[in-house]
Structure formats: C-alpha cells, structure tokens
Amino acid sequence: MDEKLIQRLESAVSRLEALSVGGFSGGVSLGDGEAAAALDPSIIAFDDLRSQFVGRVRSAAEKIGGQVLDVTKIVEEAFEAQRELLIKIKETQKPSMSGLAEFLKPLNDVIVKATKMTEGRRSDFFNHLKAAVDSLTALAWIAYTGKDCGMSMPIAHVEESWQMAEFYNNKVLVEFRNKDPNHVEWAKALKELYLPGLRDYVKSHYPLGPVWSATGKVAVSAPPKAPAPSRPMPPPPPPASLFSSESPQASSSRPKKGMAAVFDEINSGKPVTGGLRKVTDDMKTKNRADRTGVISAGEKEGRVSSPSFSKAGPPKLELQMGRKWVVENQIGRKNLVIDDCDAKQSVYIFGCKDSVLQIQGKVNNITIDKCTKMGVVFMDVVAACEVVNCNGIEVQCQGSAPTISVDNTTGCQLYLSKDSLETSITTAKSSEINVLVPGAGPDSDWGEHALPQQFAHIYKNGQFVTTPVSHSGG
C-alpha cells in the first residue's frame, strides 16, 4: 500500500480516537464547530502537508542540531499556528482589518520570535536562519481578503515569498554541497515544503483565499488600550507586523524628493533666482583684506574635522520622472522590493550596505554602484546589469540578461538561471568573481566557476598573446 495513504489513514484514526475521548466523555457533544472543522478535508490535507514536508525538514535538522534545529522547531510551531487559524476560520465570520490583525496575532507572534534569531551577532548558520525565517512570510497568504487588500493572490504570494528565502537557501547549498550532505538535505527539504508543498495545498483548497463562515461567531477586535501614565522615556516601538498593510516600496503619493522635486519647483512658475543672495564686492575673494595665500595648520585641521555634509545621504527608494528607480543609502534593509516596473525603466542602486533588493519584473538596465554586502535579485533586463566599485556583492538573475559587467569590484557572486546561461560576462579590475549555474537536473547541485583575475602575457610572432593564469587546487 502507498506510504502516503498509510500516513493519511493513521492520521485520520488518531483524530477519531482523540475526538472519541475528548468529545464524548462527561456528556460533551461532538457537535462543536471546532471538532467538526478538524475533520474537514482541507484540514486533513494540511495535516498531511505537515507530516510529509515539515517532517522531512525536522528530520534533516535533527542531524545538524544547534540553531538549525531551533529555527526548524519554530517553523513547525508556525505551521501548527496556521492550522489552528484555519480551523477557527471555518467557524468565524470575516472580520474587519483591525479584527483580522488581532485574529492572526498568534501566527504573527511566532514569526516575530523567529525573526529575533537573526538579530544581533551573526552566527555560523546565518544563512540557514535567514532562509527559514524569510520563508515564513509565505504563511501570510491566510491574510488575503480580496483583490483590493494590497496582497498578491495566495498562490502567487507563496511563490514570491519563497523567492526571498531562496537567496539564502542557495547559499546553504553552495556552502555545504561538498562538506556536509545533511545541510544540503535540509535546504532541499525546506524548499519542497513551500514549492510544491504549501503552494499546491493553497492551489487545491484556498486559491482565492480563506473561506470564512457566513453564520459563525464574530471575531472581536482588540479593545483600545488605556492611555499610559506619563513616563520619562517612551517605550520602544513594537516589532513590525508581518501583516502590516504598508508596502516596503516607496509610494507614489509621498512627497517627491531629489531631482523630481527640483523639476516640480522649476515648473511651478516661481522665479528660479528668488531665494538667491547677491554677492557684494567685499564678499569676493580677490577683494578680501585677510587673503594671505598661506593656510595655517590650525585652519587646515578645522576644515577636516567639520565637514559641510555627511557622506551618506538619506535613504531613498523612489521612481524619478517615471523612468528611473533610485535606491540609495539603504543600510541593513533585507526586504526592499520594486514590483511596479516596466521594460522602459532603469534601476540605479547606490551606496547601499547589508541589504537585499528584489526587482520583480523586466527593466531596461540595472546599475549597482559603490555598494557593500548587497544582494540583488532580478527577473529580466533588456540591456545589461552593471556592478561598479562594489565589495561583497551577490547578484541573482532568475530570468534572462544579455550582458553582465563587473568593474572595479572585489568579491562578486553571480547566480544564473537556465535562461541566462548565454549571458556575456565582462570583468575589469575585479577580483574574487564566482559564477554559479544550475545543475543538469532539478535536484542537481549548483556548479561554481571562478572567473580568472590574473593573466599571463607572452610576446610571440610580433604580438602579445594573453592567457588566463590557472592555479592548481594543491
């Protein structure tokens, strides 16, 4: 008999035994909505999902132990919390937005607890933690309430959420493919939990979102909190909710900044020179009486110690003049997203550090300039993706890119998809450039190729012949 069928039968028997003990003892009737909902086909299918896919991740984590096992237990806890919510949805009327946030609070609390594991000092298993924590965003499909709720459809949301986690999951596969097969098994099991596991479950049972009860009980919103007494210092802000309606990307309704604000000021009809001050003769350098042409040591030191402006400007993520997305000075932001783009727009990333940007759509070209420890994931580019003056950059192409150029950069990891294997890669004045390509099969490991950074030039037959220098592994 099929092993999956045996597991489903054993799970159903266990549920019936639990109901027979808890449902009939003491004269309690089995007619409770929660007990009936537990036998719903969608709940039984969710239990199968947990036993099959979550169980595989747990088995692999137990072989590794440590923080990997700890974060895997939280993943189990999150799926358990979602199961309880799915049961309650079947006996609860659709709440308001404030009521929905309170209803989903148990799941959000688990995800916030998982997020705290990635904070503080970076551990040796940081990529495992980030892959697991970012993957939990997929469980937010349960918050979908309709096309106007600001979320993607449930199936698309699961797929998009996994794309964010896959960036770190691939790093686990690359790091441990020749070191420890248990880590590789864990990373593959984590991916299969969502693709195809959770995606196929949502597709089969909730393609249009949760189905709330029309006659069930009403979800009660959290009562308003009484004003707190005055304190010397306000309490720290709570952690950001997974189900917050605010989008991570810049909104077009916000005040315009940068060059967009300058052009608006010019087009307003006001005098352009209205706010300028007139320079009088005594203010000109050539007429100053104290102009000696000698700079003292104290004056020179004063200039160095008091710069006129900070090196890093304010963070930006905005569309300028409808043609150019500007992402500047983003520090420690792992959830930057640009999803409202088209093939006529370009993306310019400057001065970012320890951040991750997703570009969900085709754009004309992408430029990454003066960034450190920056990750960029994009779908398709029409012209080229350029990396300039960077350090420790990771770029993942999930679609196609005709050209990728790397200039004056130290440490660059390029992840190519099967559609981008014919990409032309150009490097100049760069070192530590590695290109990772997918294996032949769906379960094959990624292949890593180091691009040469040192060349030998030999004069032969009236011209120089240049060949890359190869180094043996010994």
UniProtKB/TrEMBL annotation:
Highest taxon of the lineage: Eukaryota
Biased composition regions of type Low complexity, renumbered to the chain: 241-253
Sequence ranges assigned to domain C-CAP/cofactor C-like in this UniProt record: 314-451
One Pfam family recorded for the sequence: CAP_N-CM
Compositionally biased intervals (Pro residues): 224-240
Region: Disordered, residue numbers: 220-258
Similarity section: Belongs to the CAP family.
Name of the featured protein: Adenylyl cyclase-associated protein
Gene that encodes it: CAP1_1
